[in-house]
Amino acid sequence: MSITRPLTTVYAAGAVLWRTIGNDIHVLVIHRTGHKDVSLPKGKVDPGETLPQTAVREIREETGIKVALGVPVGATEYVMPNGKNKFVQYWAAEVTTKAIQKSKFVPNDEVAALEWLPLASARGELSYEPDKEILDNFAALVKEGVTKTFAVVVLRHGKATPPSDWRDEDATRPLTERGLTQSHGIVRTIASWKPKRFISSTAVRCVETITPVATALKKTIKITNKISQDAFESGKSDVRSVVGEIVRKRKSTVVCSHGPVSPAVIREIALATGTPWTSALEEAGMLNTASFSVVHLSSTHPSSGIIAVETHDSQL
Fold it and tell me: Residues 186-209: pLDDT tens digits?
């Protein structure tokens, strides 16, 4: 009697790197040395990594280019020749002239050459259908005119000291040891989008959660009672004005608040961008401790609605 063993899944991540050359969008394809093929930059997850971390690291290793992730553009899943299942998540990532100038790429044993091509030409050069499908997803964004994006990271604070164990004001409850571990554990993943602005509730547990990533990126934190739980439950919060400012500034931003407030933040983003309310958006606001949803908006046409939402649960 033969026994069929379950497939082992290999996880990987990559991106469609793009920039404007002249009046056209060009994307980067890599010519791989050993495989003798042409593909989008991607690579396998290292132990302890999240998919966004992998995408940023692999792009830098394969191309020498540092990027901030943009909107997710889909995933591929297929069976490799060795019988293992492979899952690859992709994001779009705009490449700046400065990033290209700082790249130290030289041909090596893994990547023989980098090539910037117009969309149609790139599709024709790619060796594999899954890569072409991802490029088609990106091309759809180009057609809609929403390639330039910014991210709103809606973050719930980490595990805090229970109210029953705290005799002082609720807003002064600190993170537990687990919560502090969570706050440091999410730094590299959130940094994958290179947020420029950081906004926190006045509650100690929120400030302690957002501080490690803000410190890592050398950014200051704007602390406001407008998104605190106390203000929200007393009817004195002003989530709308906070979200409105984020949309107007069009810079990637982390907003750290509370379980009851996070759904309201997501809803106000939808209202501010004319996005119909859906169950998917509702779910994006229901966050576990130290988990976050990344809401992607168009930098050029914010009123065109939410382009995509992705949720990342804390693994700690």
Answer: 999 999 999 999 999 999 999 999
Instruction: Clarify whether residues 75 and 137 are in a common domain.
Output: yes
Q: How many domains does the chain have?
A: 2
Does the residue 4 lie in any domain? no
CATH of the domain at 188: 3.40.50.1240
Q: Are 247 and 275 in contact (CB under 8 A)?
A: no
How far is residue 95's CA from residue 84's CA, in Å, rounded to a whole number?
A: 33
Contact of 157 with 256, CB cutoff 8 Å:
yes
Residue 3 domain flag: no
DSSP H helix total and E strand total for the chain: 11, 13
> Is 7 a residue whose pLDDT tops 80?
no
pLDDT per residue as tens digits for the range 51-86: 999 999 999 999 999 999 999 999 999 888 888 899
Are residues 129 and 154 both part of a single domain? no
Domain extent for 296: 149-312
pLDDT per position as a tens digit, 98-119: 999 999 999 999 999 999 999 9
Say yes or no: 130 and 100 in one domain: yes
CA distance 186 to 188: 6
CATH number assigned to the domain comprising residue 118: 3.90.79.10
Query: Are the C-beta atoms of residues 69 and 192 closer than 8 Å to each other?
Result: yes
Alpha helices in the chain (DSSP H): 51-63, 97-102, 119-125, 129-144, 177-185, 187-191, 204-216, 229-233, 239-249, 262-272, 279-284
pLDDT digits (tens, 9 = 90+) for 119-169: 999 999 999 999 999 999 999 999 999 999 999 999 999 999 999 999 999
Average pLDDT over residues 278-305: 96
| Strand-pair category, 42-44 with 9-21 | antiparallel
